[in-house]
Amino acid sequence: MNELEEILGGAINEVSTKLQNDITIAPSEKNLKRKAAKLIKGKATPIKMSLEINREFHLQLKLYSIYAGKSMREIIEESVRQYIKKHPLE
């Protein structure tokens, strides 16, 4: 695992823990399965989201994206997908 994946993995884990602690009403299992099926089939529409990161990490990610020839969004999405695949929820 490279440094970028470690940083993103740690940030994602921290956010995931916070979200799990903040959620007071769990959606129904049927609703979750329906939403997951849409995401897997690629029928979900893109959404915008905000993320606060420190300036040094932003610069590191931006430089990495330039040298890799990928957008920052592509790198983050790929990293999150890999993280989720490696750390399935029980």
From TrEMBL:
UniProt-listed InterPro entries: Arc_rbn_hlx_hlx, Ribbon_hlx_hlx
Domain of life of the organism encoding this protein: Bacteria
Name of protein: ParG protein
One GO BP annotation of this record: regulation of DNA-templated transcription
